[in-house]
Amino acid sequence: MAISSKYERAPDERISWLASIPYVGLHVGAIAGLFVFPLSGSMVALVVGLYYLRMFGITAGYHRYFAHRGFKTSRWFQFVLALIGSTASQKGVLWWSGLHRHHHKHSDQPEDIHSPQRGFWWAHHLWILCPKYDETPKSQLKEFAAYPELLWLNKYWIVPPLGLAAVLFLIGGLSWAFYGAVVSTVLLYHGTFVINSLTHVFGRRRYETTDTSKNSFLLALLTMGEGWHNNHHYYQSTANQGFFWWEIDLSYYLLKVLSWLGVVWDLRTPPQWVLEGKKRAYGDEPSFAFPAELIDDMAAISALKSAATGEPATRLGELALKAAETAAEVAERAAKAAESAKTKMRESAAEAAERAAALAAEAAEAAATTRTTWSERAAQAARAAAQSAARARATC
Prior knowledge:
By secondary structure, the protein is mostly helical. 61% of the residues lie in helices and 1% in strands.
């Protein structure tokens, strides 16, 4: 595929082959080691087990939680997800999730760092070897500033995969370290990277989006549900990416089990208008669609909750008021839509109003902890959102 001039690499997008020696060496070692360490059934089980365990850390942790906040969890399990994902050796959790958000913001546009429009292999993995993209987006560092353990993991991301290799060596010697920390990791690299490359090239499209995202059953199996990529690009902030029962999504199934145990909660799923939107044009969102900025603000509020004094309290108060007022506006638009909509659409509008009211209440609660001048205004916005939600529900 010829690369358009607007997608050509800039002069500062050069690959650092010196810094890429460990990455290249891991691939060479994975092939060479096969002639040294005999393959057995137990080694296959080890490779597959560690592949899917760490894939869950990437899909449920790095992606659906840290990048999209598709569900909620405790601080300790937040760290567990980040730690498991870090053992995949795909750099820091905040680096990964921050650049992924950038991808969604500019998907398949010239600004998109890893669009296949810039070349298949560049999208697949070469962009990772470019020093230009080594820095973690500042927005992610600010959002998770209240969690020093995450900042540490993000900075010293190489420690978990080395630790995993050491543990495997102590348990089973060189063969375990080779198959578990080398072969499994290389397979995991490319199992993850196909989402950037192949799901924008091969597959089927249910939704008309502004990018080339596609759905793939096979890649969904390899990536625990990430292959439903067109679904994801149409509606991002969900804990599931398989929107229908026949779309296998192993990451979501595990999250669902964890929700029964109380480890995670508030698993977001697509609203009815999305499920009914098979022929809906991307821009034809209902008037009460949730702005992505509101979702990002709620994620930032969650990160700031533990710091309610001084400068963080000011940031939290301002942000909470903004989120509460935005959510109240969404709830009011949804209520009006419910009053004027056909029967089929009223339920979706009422659900949206109730979700907006819940977000407004959560934001107001966060504002109240700061004891700032924004607290009462946020509370007023939450009350208005609740009234709008009640009005919307009354139409059903």
